[in-house]
Amino acid sequence: MSSPWTGCCLCGAVQYEARGASLAQLICHCRDCQRASGSAGLPVVVVKAADFSFKGEIKAYTMIGGSGMPTTRNSCAHCGSLLFGTPHHAPEIVTIYAGTLDDPSRFKAEFVQFASERHQLDGNQAEIPQHLGRVP
């Protein structure tokens, strides 16, 4: 069994844990992830929702995501750090934003999605598979 995925927000008021192996590790370049993260792409660790838990006060924001379906992004209610998502099109998963991991060196991107929306700011991922939209 792999060690849990753990992380927290900038101020430490919210901590999370996901038991078990990741289902996927990717970088998403959809415009929603760009705007939410303020970066060219958002590194994401996908885990089973049943294996995910958090402590602390979060602020949830729901909107139509890159999938065309509603998605909820969860941030620390105190410092505003973007922590994890709960996509409505896949309620069995949680998307952890890898920049908040306690050990971000565990993140190993397996693919990029929404490469068609990638900014010129990010040109360093050419060695991993590229998908022009959401991976089916």
UniProtKB/TrEMBL annotation:
Top-rank taxon: Bacteria
Where in the numbering of this chain does the CENP-V/GFA domain appear?
5-127
What InterPro entries does this protein map onto?
CENP-V/GFA (IPR006913), Mss4-like_sf (IPR011057)
Question: What family does this belong to?
Answer: Belongs to the Gfa family.
> One Pfam annotation, family name?
GFA
PANTHER family to which the protein is assigned, alphabetical: CENP-V_GFA DOMAIN-CONTAINING PROTEIN-RELATED (PTHR33337:SF40), GFA DOMAIN-CONTAINING PROTEIN (PTHR33337)
What protein am I looking at? GFA family protein
Q: Would the keyword Metal-binding be found if you checked this record's keyword annotation? A: yes
What are the entry keywords? Lyase, Metal-binding, Zinc
